[in-house]
Amino acid sequence: RFVASCLALCTGMTLAWGARAGGIIPPTVTSPFGDPVCLDPIDVTNTLANPSGYYAISDQCESLCKKAASDCKQYVRLAFACTSALLGDDVSYQKKDCEREFADDNSGKKECKAGIDNDSGVDRQALRNNRDGALATCEEWGAICRNSCNQP
Predict the structure, then answer these.
(1) Which residues pair with 23 in a beta bridge?
(2) Strand pairing partners for 20?
(3) pLDDT tens, position by position, 11-25
(4) Helices 61-101 and 106-147 sit at what angle, rounded to 10 degrees?
């Protein structure tokens, strides 16, 4: 029974993938990464502790606050670079899928790729906005932290 069920399933899948131009339709071309590989820049700042009094008891409070704010900005920039690279890779995979999907239709291929470029532009602008907001949050965190130094 098991073998017969598997045979029926495989036959059904082969037929479902169909004979487009006499062959099997290849699967969609997508990125091989299933989970987010990179943090969004906003995610970096979401991990920050409450700056009020975080280093207040240290005799090096101000320098620690400055270092933490600097590190925060560095991690935001790294997250931005990683996510930006990932977006670029995703665009590349999606455009390869346009070539597969519209192999015999040049206008469809161009339209597909133009839509991907448009969506990518929106995504990249949102990423830049997140980066800029996160960098401002790092600065604000550092200022609040430094203001709490030597406070009773």
Answers:
(1) 20
(2) 23
(3) 343 333 333 444 444
(4) 170
